[in-house]
Design a protein that fits this description.
Layout (H helix, E strand, L loop, with lengths): L2 E7 L3 H11 L5 E5 L6 H13 L11 E5 L4 E6 L6 H5 L3 H5 L4 E5 L13 E7 L5 E7 L1
Parallel strand pairs: 2-5, 2-6, 4-5
Antiparallel strand pairs: 1-7, 3-4, 6-7
Helix pairs in contact: 1-2
Length: 139
C-alpha cells in the first residue's frame, strides 16, 4: 500500500486538488475520512470544480449529487445519514461505482464493504494550526 502525506493550508486547497487528480489520474473511486468540519466537502468541491467546472455542494439529503462536465461525470456521495447498506442499495450504487465515472464518497465507513477495493482512501484531520489540514492518501 502506497501512502502520500501532506500538510495543506485551506488557501492552497485548489493546488492540492490538482496534485491529487494528477497523481491518481487512473483512479476514479475516492473515499474521504475525517471528523465533521475537517474539510471533506470543501476538498471534494475543489475536485469537482476542476473536473467539471461546476460548483459542488453537500448531498447530505439526496445521498448523491451528479455533476456532468464536458469530459467527465462526478458522483458525490454523502453517507452520513445512512443507517444501513439498504439505503445506498436502493439508489443502485453499483451503477455509480462501476461506471468509470469519478465517485467521491464522504463517510465511507457506513458502506465500506460495498466500495471497490481499488479505491483511494483520503484521511483528513485538523493540524495543530487551525488553517492547516493533515492529509494521508492510501492506495
Amino acid at each position: 500500500m502506497k501512502e502520500l502525506r501532506r500538510d495543506i493550508s485551506l488557501s492552497n486547497l485548489e493546488d492540492f486538488a490538482k496534485e491529487v487528480l494528477e497523481t491518481y489520474k487512473t483512479n476514479r473511486i475516492f473515499s474521504f475520512y475525517g471528523e465533521m468540519g475537517v474539510g471533506k466537502t470543501t476538498l471534494i468541491s475543489k475536485l469537482v470544480k476542476l473536473l467539471t467546472g461546476e460548483e459542488a455542494s453537500s448531498p447530505t439529503f439526496s445521498l448523491v449529487n451528479v455533476y456532468k462536465g464536458e469530459r467527465t461525470t462526478v458522483n458525490h456521495f454523502d453517507c452520513y445519514r445512512i443507517e444501513n447498506s439498504k439505503d445506498i442499495e436502493s439508489i443502485g450504487y453499483e451503477e455509480f461505482f462501476y461506471s468509470g465515472d469519478y465517485c467521491f464518497i464522504e463517510w465511507p465507513e457506513k458502506i465500506e464493504t460495498l466500495i471497490p477495493q481499488s479505491g483511494i482512501k483520503v484521511y483528513l484531520s485538523v493540524h495543530s494550526k487551525d488553517e492547516i489540514r493533515s492529509v494521508i492518501i492510501k492506495t
